[in-house]
Write a structure and sequence with these properties.
The protein is of the alpha/beta class. Helices cover about 35% and strands about 20% of the residues. The chain has 27 helices and 32 strands. The strands form seven sheets. The chain has a seven-stranded mixed β-sheet, sandwiched between helices. Strands 6-7-5-8-9-4-10 form a seven-stranded parallel β-sheet, with helices on both faces. The longest helix has 24 residues. The chain is globular, with a radius of gyration of 29 Å.
Length: about 950
Amino acid sequence: MSDSQTDRQEQADVPVTGDELVDTFPGYRAEDDITVLERPGREASTVPNERVLRPELADPLENDLYSHQAEALEALGRDENVCVATSTSSGKTRIYALQIARNYLEARARNEDATAYVLYPTKALSRDQERELNDLFDDLGLEITVRVYDGDTERGSNRKRIREEADVIISNFAGVNTYLHDHDRWARFLSACDLVVIDESHTYTGVHGMHVAWIVRRLKRVLGYYDADPQFVLTSATIGNPGEHSAALIDEPVSVVDEDGSPTGPRDLVLWNPPPRAREDGRSESSETRPGATRAERGEGREERRASREDAVDERNERSGSDEEPVRNGPSDAAEDAILERVPATVEAPRMLSHLTYHDAQTLLFTPSRKLAELSVKRASKHRHDNRRYYTNPDRGSAIEPYHAGHSRKKRHGTEHQLKTGVLDGVASTNALELGINIGEMDATVQLGYPGQRQSFWQQIGRAGRGTKRALSVLVAEHRTLDQYVVSNPDYLLESDVEDAVVDVDNDAVFAQHLRCAADELAIDETDAGDLADRERLERAIEMWRRAGQLRGNLETGVSYVGPPRPQQTISLYATTGQEYEVDLADGVDERRDPGMEPLAKERVLRDFHEGAVRLHQGQQYEVTDVDHDAPRPSVTVRPTDVDYYTRTRTDVTVLDAVSEESRDVGGFTLHFGRGRVLVYHGTYDKVAVHGGKRKEQGIPTENPPLEMETQLCWLEVPQRVERALIEKYRDFEVPELEDGLAGTAHLGYAGGLHAAEHATIGVAPLELMVDKRDLGGLATLTIDSHLAQEQGGDDGNGMGPGTGPGPDGAGGDAAPRNIAAAEAAVREIANGLDRTPASGWFIYDGIEGGLGFARAIYENYEAVAERARELIADCDCGNVDGCPACVMDDQCGNDNQPLHRDAAVDVLDQLLENEGEGALEAYLPDEEHGGDRRPPLFYA
């Protein structure tokens, strides 16, 4: 076949190509709003089965092994641990399935048992893989019993039968954490265990990754007690550091297999920036204002505004983030055609789903929340019916359903089956379908917003592609930092480097929790020094729990747990402390109105569930009527309500007592990594109108105590010369509405530059690392020295640091200032007492007690992160001196995004990255520090 014939055949393989999508999608859009990238396919690379497998396994297999499957099996044959980091649908399950089969045959020849523990991140994935493994073993003619054992497994004799009879047990890490308490019941299974599989291992990062790493260490310890020494197989999406990440999880060397031998078809990748939306001043063009727009299109434009307002409330209250209202753009020097707002992706992406299914492309839409999965199906249908002039047969391709973990297992399985068999034309899903659930291959994917990392991006779009046929994937961008960076820099997605996954086992708060569990499972003795932790760390933690009355004994004779029963139940796999608040229904309210909320972490209670807060849960508003912080069982009491406002908590942050543990020079700046106290004050809240976003009441006290964290930080000190020049360059910048009499200070423009650089640096961190920016915080300050420890000390006596001991608040050292005013006064007092000129700059900290390892990763990759931040700010087309949500505004900003100065931020980052020489600032250097006065101790979160 000729090349031209091949091209025509490939074009015919997908119902809609990228270019056809651009040509056929109704409505006007600028040429710069869309980029179509063509990705070539890849032929399969195979290895004959008989070269790797014994005949009993090689002969029944219909197809030869892909090269990466063969490589992994050969490494396993050499008794190595293996991490397989290849693309979606590349046959990773078959690798460990065949290793299970090999182990089974070898053990049977010795008249012994061979068992395998297979651990998945979700229950839905467990059930799906149970079927797949059983089908494969049936095809191979092997009597290998595969069973799921998790929280949904029927209790009693059924669980006992699985423990005593199953060859392969499928579970999850929440289950393993619990089951280790009763390991004696699992003796038969554990003593024969020669393989542990950690599927989708890339999902274990941050706090969750820390907990998983410690659960694996506890599991290995118990397995060793039963004389089992299993191999590990980890399967991962493509990440930047699969070997390092896997070794951190299992605490053993790992061989990485990442050369993918599976075939893929060509792919059209469309980066779609929604068109400008109508503003109140009518400047930006949309379907509502465009000359010649039809009545339906004008009505649709009004619907965009209404729907986006609804989304702003729905999404805020559904996700675990803050209740921030939509960020408003500040004063603008923009040109008349500057794009300040776009049609929300929450509106545009469902339209895309509707359009593609109408054109016979079976499509999977990924959404960031359950609420949006449901709303997207409704909006897809509405778009179809509102545009009957174009969609003349609105019922065509209209079988579209939502999918998320909130649905029953029966409903989810029904949706999966209908997708696989072609009954459904499309599905709007959360990332529940990002992982390896078998739904067949789709024609197209649509992503409602950039999912945060390239790893997740490629994982999601990998769900489309029927064998070697052409596929279509569309990213519909949100008007926010990451999305706008990606669509403005398409090459970023195609770079070979993918983000690193971060797992940090240095967090003492998490370590201390799991140490109690380990002592409950088996007495801790000298053999654990070096394996579980180094001896010094182990002894410090044991001493802390001994003082708390929960451990007894010493390493020489054995340390046993004597605290409350089952410490495993106090572990929350998504928090560093075990303290959680139950959500109760107010007295006198019909129990049928109970929201059924999961327990809440203390951080979220202080931010989102203070007394008087109004929250939306599964479509129902609830008001918080009481919060009990001091009871043995902390609780939040709620009652249903129906009001025309939501609540937005104001957040203030400062850093105290930071201690540098490492430092290095970057372009003449000094970069530090260390630890310190972060104080978060959710002191007041506003009532904000659902429609229009106006504040109905402001500054209502929450009576919240401060949230105090001992955590990891990195911070940058700006050279005095750069600082002096930029203060002078931007001395005329003012923010008239700024509080505290600081509106016209000469330092404000420079401080706004530091603040903007801090926002942007945090905002782009996920472009380099697998971090969630909601787990990071920052503080820009003119007086870094006043936030540092003025003298060493502050240990609480056990050496483990705050948050690790039995105290309820996790607070150590001196009592925290009660409110932000007191905290500001403390910083001001320290600044006034300094006998040196303090440095200026900004902190980035892990927003979790004890730290996550994210600040450390940023410290180690600071130049790359700073380069991304500089590009983001300089390339944004908003034209605002104070930026927009796509560059430097942040909806989590504790200072309401004031002050911010884009140009000053670019100047600082240019000096840091040495893009500009020192001479670039020569003209702005004053003869002496501006005004000759000591700088004000300003800091902005």
